[in-house]
Write a structure and sequence with these properties.
The structure is a single chain. The chain contains 9 helices and 7 strands, in the order E-H-H-H-H-E-H-E-E-H-E-H-E-H-E-H. With 200 residues, the protein is of the alpha/beta class. It has 2 domains: 126 residues, HAD superfamily/HAD-like (Rossmann fold); 49 residues, thrh gene product, domain 2 (Alpha-Beta Complex). It has a 7-stranded mixed β-sheet, with helices on both faces. Helix 7 links the parallel strand 5 and strand 6. The longest helix is centred in the first third of the chain and has 15 residues. It is globular and about 50 Å long. The N and C termini lie close together (7 Å).
């Protein structure tokens, strides 16, 4: 039994924090897991910038409402789900993900949650589990699934390398250079073909 584990941002939808950075004109918020491998450090950095500018959950959700899946993402996901089970493993938050899941036809997503004050200020975050992507892949393998994984960032590498087959998708030149052993694709057709070839 195969199950495909996909990253969300940068793979199926644009990076939420980059979109928010552009909407607010705060360039510091452009930093993502493509740039910073330490997720806790990255989130504390983001929360401090939000606090400094008086921005909260509502402002981010307003920007997310205007984000659409990347061109071809829905068609890719639909084609993939006809062939096998798919789970999205993301370090985003349920408070961000819901409008995007609606636009992607409500696929299953495992993600994290935010700590939000009554005022709407984001005060912290709760990871679903430590090393959530790798831990989830290992858990799926423990109940009889062979995993196939794809992602674009540093925080996807563990689940990609732990899987039966793993791919970089629309990744950075640095990550591709650091991991020449991982097949890297730029189009959904290429990724769909690669995944399909590895299905049992």
């Amino acid at each position: 039994m195969d199950i495909v584990c996909l990253d969300l941002e940068g793979v199926l939808v644009p990076e939420i924090w980059i979109a928010f950075s552009e909407a607010t004109g705060i360039p510091e918020l452009r930093k993502t897991t493509r740039d910073e491998p330490d997720y806790d450090k990255l989130m504390k950095y983001r929360i401090a910038i939000l606090k400094e500018h008086g921005l909260g959950l509502k402002e981010i959700q307003d920007v997310i409402a205007g984000i659409d899946p990347m061109p071809g993402a829905l068609e890719f996901l639909n084609a993939l789900r006809e062939k096998t089970q798919v789970i999205i493993l993301s370090d985003t938050f349920k408070e961000f993900a819901s409008p995007l899941m609606k636009k992607l036809g409500w696929p299953t997503i495992f993600c994290n949650s935010l700590e939000v004050a009554p005022s709407g200020e984001i005060t912290g975050y709760r990871m679903r589990i430590e090393k959530s992507k790798l831990t989830t892949v290992k858990a799926l393998q423990s109940i009889g699934y062979d995993t196939i994984a794809a992602g674009d960032s540093y925080n996807d590498l563990a689940m990609i390398t732990a899987s039966k087959a793993g791919f970089l998708f629309k990744s950075t030149e640095q990550i591709k250079k650091d991991h020449p052993e991982l097949p890297a694709f730029e189009t959904y057709d290429e990724l769909l073909n690669a995944i399909t070839k590895n299905l049992a």
